[in-house]
């Protein structure tokens, strides 16, 4: 069982925790605004352990972030502790070519049900630049979020999450299955993304966090800030500047090397 109080403190959540749709929205939003999407342990050579105690220790204890398996794995444990019914779903993320998709278990996201309500929700605090608040898991319904407009459609036996692009086209972000899985089912792909030179997570460091009006993203050599549709960049010169930016903009302090 996780330490609910410590986790809620980590995401800055205060108030009632009745497991209903409104609380789910507030929890999801608080998580997105507090816990960064980051792959820094991969570049530190620290293995990522897909077990709830390890994930809780990293996110709440060390006040770190993580990537999808960590963030949604930990968030699912919090939701279950609060009384929600949660299913772990696997997804295939759209590749850079814009037309093909990665392998199964490329991404982890959540199907959430509130007690006493038949309406399922799609929650995802681990995709990076994505919806701030959970979406209704309903095919064909266009849904508005502070980050844009989304739609879920049938896709060859799976479901696809589409996002409205600036030019007016609906782009699929990923295709996801509807069957529930255990966290252990994602270990092989989690290992792949930590070690393969073909994984986008081994290519460069990234730390990214949503803000109420945009997003802050730190890469190896630059800090990118979007705010109200405006984008700015500034260079990050050297390791000292990188670590200073991590601390200042994301509240992340990396462990000292052994």
List the helices and strands and how they pair.
Elements: H1 4-10, H2 21-34, E1 37-38, H3 40-44, H4 52-61, H5 68-82, E2 85-93, E3 107-113, E4 120-123, E5 135-136, E6 143-145, E7 148-155, E8 158-164, E9 170-176, H6 187-195, E10 206-211, E11 214-219, E12 222-227, E13 230-235, H7 239-250
Antiparallel strand pairs: 1-10, 2-3, 2-9, 3-4, 4-5, 6-7, 7-8, 8-9, 10-11, 11-12, 12-13
Tag the structure with descriptive keywords.
8-stranded antiparallel β-sheet; single chain; 7 helices; alpha+beta; 258 residues
Structural notes for this entry:
The chain has 258 residues and is an alpha+beta fold. The chain contains 7 helices and 13 strands. The strands form 2 sheets. It has an 8-stranded antiparallel β-sheet with strand order 5-4-3-2-9-8-7-6, covered by helices on one side. Strand 6 and strand 7 form a beta hairpin. The longest helix has 15 residues, at 68-82. The chain starts with a helix and ends in an 8-residue tail after the last helix. The mean pLDDT is 95.
């Amino acid at each position: 069982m996780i330490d609910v109080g410590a986790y809620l403190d980590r995401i800055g959540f205060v108030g009632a925790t009745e497991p209903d749709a409104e609380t789910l929205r507030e929890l999801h939003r608080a998580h997105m605004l507090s816990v960064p999407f980051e792959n820094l342990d991969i570049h530190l050579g620290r293995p990522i352990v897909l077990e709830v105690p390890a994930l809780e220790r990293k996110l709440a204890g060390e006040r770190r972030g993580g990537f999808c398996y960590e963030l949604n794995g930990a968030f699912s444990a919090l939701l279950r502790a609060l009384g929600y019914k949660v299913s772990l779903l696997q997804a295939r993320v759209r590749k850079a070519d814009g037309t093909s998709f990665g392998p199964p278990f490329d991404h982890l996201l959540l199907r959430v049900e509130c007690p006493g309500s038949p309406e399922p929700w799609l929650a995802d605090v681990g995709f990076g630049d994505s919806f701030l608040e959970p979406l209704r898991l309903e095919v064909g319904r266009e849904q508005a979020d502070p980050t844009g407009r989304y739609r879920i459609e049938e896709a060859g036996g799976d479901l696809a999450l589409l996002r409205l692009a600036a030019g007016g086209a609906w782009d699929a972000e990923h295709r996801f299955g509807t069957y529930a899985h255990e966290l252990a089912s994602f270990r092989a792909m989690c290992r792949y993304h930590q070690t393969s030179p073909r994984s986008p997570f081994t290519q460069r460091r990234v730390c990214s966090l949503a803000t109420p009006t945009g997003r802050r993203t730190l890469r190896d050599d630059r800090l990118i800030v979007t705010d109200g549709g405006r984008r700015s960049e500034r260079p990050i010169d050297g390791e000292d500047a990188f670590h200073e930016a991590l601390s200042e903009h994301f509240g992340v302090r990396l462990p000292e090397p052994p």
